[in-house]
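Trying the structure run again after the queue cleared.
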Amino acid sequence: MNFKLHNIGKRYNYEWIFRNVNYEFTSDNNYVILGSNGSGKSTLLQVIAGSLIASEGTIEYFAENQESRIQNPDFIIREDEIFKHISFASPYLELFDEFTLIESIEFQAQFKPFFDGLTTKEIIELTQLEKAKDKQLKYYSSGMKQRVRLVLAILSNTPLLLLDEPTSNLDKKSIDWYQNLVAQYSKQRMIIVCSNEQTYEYPFCNKYLHIEDYKQKTI
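Done. Tokens:
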């Protein structure tokens, strides 16, 4: 899928977080949104995902697969349908703490299919958390929870993958694990990463958007 941002802006009260974002994302590239803490990059990612509404501007999403073209000759994906095409991971994304790892995977599968018909057992192996598969997530460390978030998003069979500061709470070994997982499941999809310029979070990205270029604090 491809999509375009047209004059996107977001403000809280009278302060603009960003404004006049005009940008086109195409499926033959991967992107990173760069900015310091509190700069608004995560907010922009949530606007793209449809979990936040922009204060001004519009987003157009375009499907590329043949089935979508048959259903919609203009190739346009409605905003209320975009969630079907997106998977999202962020350190602030809440998990169901009462679920075990097994239950989390099976719950996710009810809403979005996993790649290649991956089984629950195979996904657990990919998390490298086999010994904790029957534990409730509330007993997981922050790093283990981040692995769960990443696996559920990266392995979901969607054309658009959004990763907000994906290596938060991960040690060096887990960062290597993350990079290998993305490399394995990055084909034929677009990836957008938000980062504080931690280059190991986005070695696969070839396009850069700096949120500071769209800062404006006047109404």
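Confidence is low (pLDDT under 50) at residues 66-71. Worth checking whether this holds up in the mutant runs.
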